[in-house]
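User: Hello, can you help with two protein structures?

Assistant: Certainly.
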Amino acid sequence: MLEQQDDSKAPCPLNLQTCATRDDWLHDCEGGVTAALGFKAIGVHAGFRADPNRLDMALVAADEPCACAATFTRNVFCAAPITISRSHLDEVGYGIARGIVINSGNANAATGSIGLENARRTTEIVGEALGCPPSEVLIASTGVIGQHINLEPYIASLPQAVVSLNAEGGHSAAQAIMTTDTVPKEAAVQFDGGEVGYPGATFTVGGMAKGSGMIMPNMATMIAVITTDAPLMPDVLHTALVRAVNKSFNKVTVDSDTSTNDCCFLFASGQAAPGSAPFAPDTAAYARFESALDHVCQTLARKMAADGEGATRLVTVTVAGAASDEDADLAARAIANSPLVKTAICGHDANWGRIAMAIGKCGASFSQENAAIDIMGLPVCREGLTVAFDEDEALKRFENPEITIDVDLGAGDAQTTVWTCDFTHDYITINGDYRS
């Protein structure tokens, strides 16, 4: 299994622009999942992995129980931690929680009643260490499917992990949840509350994510934890999270496979404005929070796509002119999931015929004589026919860390954007050796 934790070893182009657009009132900040007030985290080597230098357990905890929302995989083979976390959020995806523990190295998926009991017992161990009920503990796991998880690393490591929790621990937590990721994925932004009725407050949204392979989420991402110090009620938080996920993590595909362990958690401490009224929908404060959440989620999603297993390029696919949102998504995913398109990008080949093939097979309603295709800003197809372009200029543009494909179906006004990556020899090497 080819895994790295040293940030300096990353082959993927993570120096790319993190998000296409940003409002001028939104500002980047450091800290990732602990950037927001009221949260602490730590990543440790607990023993789920043999390498003693490999962090393999992350703990993120709020100072006090707080609002929490989540989205989860729709894969029928969902992992035991997914089932338990859903139950702790009353099967509706939101509630009150104190923290989350995440292990890497073992997915605890397809493990039956033993796996469920191990997940339940884990929340009891964490709850005892944090001093809260097990029902306020959420859990996630990532790694090999079909193997029973050993609880001893939790029992041995959690008491000290709780003692070590700190407001600068976000980076180590992001490292601890990595599997075939080559770099930790973090993001955080802030905005001024004074402009939206909360004078003196600065609100922060920050998070971490992992995901490099088995990536085409459906209602969630591989694993993501996001925090905010804005005041929000759990149900409102859930509404915002679902919208953000559908515009970010659910628009990522590395290999068209939806994991058994996909989950995304959002905690809201309210500590930036203690005692203040919660953000209500249809207010300026809530609108700015949604924009900040969108920015963090899309930044993390793009980093996931850029760090796809073996990837050398982030690929942004935009489909416009579709007859419906569903058709736009069908066409964009057909392009993003096509091995022929992804290998052409790996080979720096502006082969627009593969893109035309992908949209033509996908089932979206359009006429080929209305279709237009651009690759990296170069028109290559108009009215369904080839357009002469400079091959040398195309080769030069393939050196960019981000490759853009723009398609107009000429059938309506709907559009969408999906993020993926190129498909290289290393993807096969990594996955061929995954259990070795």
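That covers the first. Now for the second protein you mentioned:
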Amino acid sequence: MGIINDTPHRRGSGLRTVGACLALVGLLAGCDSLLEVDANTQTVPAEELNNPTSLQARLIGAQADFYFAADMAIVYGGLFTDELIDATGFETVDQRRVTPDNGAVGATDEAPEGIDGLWTPMQRAAAVTDVLQEDILAGNYPNQIPSPTTSQQLADISLLAGYTKLMLADLFCTTAFGGDGPEYTSDETYGLAIDELTQAVDATSASAAVRNAALVGRARAKLQLGDEAGALADARQVPPDFQFIADVYSSNSQKEENDLWNMMFDSQRFSVGPDYRNATVPGTDTPDPRLETRLDPGNGVGSDGFTPLWQPLKYQSATSPIRLASGDEAQYIVAELVGGQEAVDIINDVRARRGITETFSSSDEDEILSMIFQERAHGLFLEGQRMADLERYLEVYGVNLFPTGPGYGDQTCMPLPNAERDNNPGI
């Protein structure tokens, strides 16, 4: 495929001035559980979607659909940026020249190994969470949920719905939902995510874990929209040591596996980008424990037969959990917006919580901001934030950190797939 020169970029490039409890999900005993359900082996059957007696099955299905979609979002965002490189020979995503008819991004379904069809699992997650949310608010579960608008169940499903839209806004130039809806800009999609996450924040019966995760996601969306005051207010409410970890994976079946592990260890499709291979703590010569990697001990190359296969020890098994939200991310948002000595202190505090003793010191605002960029890259590696970060750096600060090279395009987001545009009468 040729380089696409007319694919829309995310937004305008005007600069703006910078003003700048451990909670586990799923199976960890003794901690808040996201949906308080067991892992699922398949998505909820279609006939269960409108069955008012099937709340438990629908919660299980929503969780399974969401985390499969989240895996895909993290991988594709990492591949589009500098976190991952392609090891299959199919380089259009890796080289930022995605066409609307791209089979991997917009396929009508995902392949058994879980790489095809980014758009489909994302849309499935959006549909399942939206319909369940509507049924809860309509009072269709009076026995299980007597107070829908304040319930833990509404908070749980709104969190998933919000993060689904947040990830779609990060990845795609425009979006659409429901098969018959309008085409939304990324900014409008961030607004939809904020609405969903606000429902989770405002539900008085929500667990502290869900509320904090929703605050992190809402702060992230507001940051992307340029609402610095709102982002700062949300981020400051999150405890610095908070972590929302998705420990929902199982080796019982391929559907239940952590797909990041599958695609980098089992299927050998993607390799860790050069800048993240056993890198050092920024500004030091000390190995960074957040970026431990290894060269595949087998034949050392990916499925294309020649790309060196570097694997992240962060996800070294089929059951490795994924961190969906954290106090680290909230603190980085605060640091980016306030700068100065508070930002320096935040960098050092986050390092200390991750076992890093080396400290950073500076009074130069440009140097501090550059360090925040590096720390976010290391501290949030393969957690799904990188694509939005690079878009923001380019738009707000005029700093282009997207990978470039011979044959690369200049896209900063992926176009709406033809699979959606051709089948959605509302577009």
